[in-house]
Amino acid sequence: MNPEPLILFDGPCNFCQKSVRFILRHEKSPDLRFASLESDIGKTLREAHHIPSENDSMILIHDGQAFTGSDAAIRACAFLRPPWSWLHSFRHLPAFLHAPVYRWIARNRYRWFGKDESCPLPDPDQSERFL
Question: Which residue range forms the structural domain that includes residue 98?
Answer without folding.
Answer: 6-120
